[in-house]
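hey m, so remember when u said the tokens were messed up on ur end? i reran from scratch. heres the input so u can diff it against urs
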Amino acid sequence: MLLHKDGLIELNYDVVSDVLKVKWPDLTGFTMPEINYSLTKLIDTLRHYDIKKVHIDSRTSSVADISKEEYHNVLLGFAKRLMTTRLEKMARIETADRSRENVVTLTADEAVNNLGIQYEFQNFTDENTALRWLTSN
């Protein structure tokens, strides 16, 4: 079920598995207020529907227009905001961009070690494995 779609983000909810599928936004050409607006919609959707599992597909997104530091800040802010939801698990499909994946790994480590996130987070290279992990107990 399509819950939200704008120029940056698309949110599809599978009621049976309680998984929100998110196409991670292509941040190229967008301003930080636009990016924050879309991420706020994602957080609001998690709260409104009390969704506990999120599947983020990053494979086709790009962050070419923002620095590594800005991207780190976007991700860290997103992780903090996720802590205000009842999220239990998040699976993310990786990109082929190793530099970008390094930023994600460092940010995830910081979120776990410094923020004390309570939800499980794992990166995957394929969608089927990610969905199996999300729906397993």
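this time it looks ok to me. The helical segments are 32-49, 68-82, 98-115, 127-135. if urs says something different then somethings off w ur setup not the seq
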